[in-house]
Amino acid sequence: MASIPPQAAASVILTNIPEDGTAPHYIQVASMAQRSGGRQINASDGSSYWVSDTCTVFPYLTRNMLYPQSIFEGAWCLVWPDAQGNAQKIMMFPPYGPEQDETVQSQGGWKLERV
Question: Does pTM surpass 0.85?
């Protein structure tokens, strides 16, 4: 019998990570606490990050304008932290707001079903 390699669906695949660099952390925001000058984000895996009000937040494959205030509980993100756990930049994945996180969205006669 032939051996079949393990198969799994990947949520994110990161490539071209420099050998002396570190990969960003893929997280789901579990909770947030507003603080002076920014917010503390706690991920569902138990990690924690400080996000200053000047942190760069950008979307995946769109031109949406995002800010640290755009981050919400349940959001999926890539976080590039420094050694102290301060977020240097954050990439958010859709949906870009809790109101967009619907099972089915309808627009102009077509339907998008989230899987």
Answer: no
